[in-house]
């Protein structure tokens, strides 16, 4: 992604390895084996580090090498849950996993909008993009920790519609390649 905003860069040292536990993954997606959601990967150490970090490709985990949470992991761990861990209690784990699922969507949308802003020189387009970006930033704040999944899906659909409409009137090359008509 073109944006250089540090908020959107994964900071794994400030995260409790949420991506290694919360999502389901399967071998067909380049994750070595089939894992159910909310179950720690068998390669995850008690220190929240990966036992095969230096050998991910050789071990069939290419998916881990290309996965990007766009900063959602440390946002959930440090900002929303004040340094807690899914290891603390089943209740905390459920809440963190749900928040992570929502925040990964919000962070990806913010990255897309920030990238689109970099490609836009049209004031009206920039205003539309900024309004949508601010809307999502509000949803990502701590007091929105329990935001409904339907609200996230609504904002996702709205963002994609906006981006696609702008693609038809501009040269968002990167976005076009990612979301072909
Ligand atoms: S969720 Fe993001 S920050 Fe956390 S370990 Fe995974 S990639 Fe790193
Ligand atoms: S292989 Fe390593 S990086 Fe990939 S999910 Fe498992 S613990 Fe995480």
Key traits:
binds iron/sulfur cluster; 0% strand; mainly alpha; single chain; 181 residues
How would you summarize this macromolecular structure in one to three sentences?
This protein has 181 residues and is mostly helical.
Mean pLDDT: 90
Rg, nearest Å: 17 Å
Order of helices and strands: HHHHHH
Taking pLDDT < 50 over at least 5 consecutive residues as the criterion, the unreliable ranges are none
Strand content: under 5%
Shape: globular
Q: How much helix, percentage-wise, in residues?
A: 40-55%
Number-wise, the strands total: 0
* Oligomeric state of shown chains: single chain
Ions and ligands: iron/sulfur cluster
The tally of helices reads 6
**What structural category arises from helix and sheet content?**
mainly alpha
Sheet with most strands: none
Please provide a written account of the structure.
This protein is an all-alpha fold and 181 residues long. It has one domain. 48% of the residues lie in helices and 0% in strands. Helix 3 packs antiparallel against helix 4 and helix 3 runs parallel beside helix 5. It is globular and about 50 Å long. It starts with 61 loop residues before the first helix and ends with a helix. The model has no long low-confidence stretch (mean pLDDT 90). It binds iron/sulfur cluster (2 copies).
